[in-house]
Amino acid sequence: MDMPRIALGAWAWGNDGTFGGKQDENVLKEVFDTAMDNGLYLWDTAYAYGAGQSEKVLGGFIKGLPRSSYMISDKLTPQMMDASSSQPVKDMLDRQLSIMSLDRFDIYWIHNTAGAPEWTRKVAEYFEGKEDAPMIGVSNHDLSEIKQADEILHEHGLKLSAVQNHYSLINRSSERSGILDYCRKNGITFFSYMVLEQGALTGKYDSSHPMPEGSARAQTYNPLMDKLEIINSKLSEVASKHGVNTAQIPIAWAIAKGTLPIIGVTGKKQVEDAVKASNVELSDDEIRTIEETADRLGIDAIRFWEKEMR
Q: Cβ–Cβ contacts within 10 Å for residue 184, how many?
């Protein structure tokens, strides 16, 4: 099954407070249905998103649908595993599959670098020789860690198929470090997450209309609103030329850079924006202009769980 140009993220579906209040499942069902109707069938989740809550909600929506009609990307998060188990990978995987009532995932990630070589090896040992092995990916890894994971997987007759890192107009460290080039040369799909910086690059928020207090993203982005207004103004200019809204330009930019963006969705309009963004073709001049504008601002968008990619 070919992957669509955009994946949809269910991070906020875990109701962990990152985006503020609890998400309404009826609203999320409308989000899911709208996406599926528009050919966006690749969903990204993790047990870490609400200790299984995101998986549970998404699993309820896919129940009864033909398995060939959707793709599920899930993650092994070392910090949430029972390391004392004699078969921790199997135990974690079985728990996740049970929550979602599935027999397999399409993509399975080592979620972060905590003990990553060990867990990559255990994942490789588990899937070695299995015909239904998923694409295996790593998330939040720098270039040396990506190469190490690739070597470990090759030792077990597998390959690294995907890399998922924070990548946006205000965080291009995965590009500058050579990660994107490495992925391109080795047939690895680079998934860019937080392309919209949790709403900061959508034009929805400004100094007069900050992000909702009490959310983790408000703590990060509200102090940066003066700078974000500058990049959003430039994005708005480009968007008007294409007849779309501001939020669609960072997504189109990520696609133009050869990545597969993961867009977090909690409302129907966000899905509709993503569909439109996938059809926007930016010129080289437009790409250069928005990148130069963003670079001049010198924003540090690396979050507490991340690092500068080298």
A: 13
Residue 303 within a domain: no
Q: CA–CA separation, 56 vs 61, rounded Å?
A: 9
pLDDT band, residue 16 (cuts 50/70/90): low
Number of domains in the chain: 1
Q: Which amino acid, 169? A: L
Enclosing H/E stretch for 275 = helix 268-277
What is the token pair recorded at 264?
């977090």
What CATH number has the domain bearing residue 16? 3.20.20.100
Pairing of strands 260-264, 42-44: unpaired
Q: Kindly give the interhelix angle for 53-62 and 25-37, rounded to the nearest 10 degrees.
A: 50
**Is 215:198 a contact under the CB 8 Å cutoff?**
no
Q: How far apart are CA 288 and CA 177, in angstroms?
A: 19
pLDDT in tens, 168-222: 999 999 999 999 999 999 999 999 999 999 999 999 999 999 999 888 889 999 9
The pair of three-digit structure tokens given for residue 223, joined into one six-digit string: 């102090």
Report the C-alpha gap between 16 and 34 in whole angstroms.
24
Distance between CA atoms of 238 and 244, rounded to whole angstroms?
9
Q: Using alpha carbons only, how large is the chain's radius of gyration in Å?
A: 19
Structure tokens at 43: 């969903």
Sign of CA dihedral 203, 207, 303, 91: negative
E strand segments, the chain: 7-9, 42-44, 71-76, 107-110, 135-139, 160-166, 189-193, 260-264
Pairing status of strand 189-193 against strand 7-9:
unpaired
Residue 159 φ then ψ, to 5°: -140, 155
Residues β-bridged to residue 262: 7, 193
> Alpha-carbon torsion 90, 95, 98, 102, what sign?
negative
Q: Which domain holds residue 242?
A: 7-297
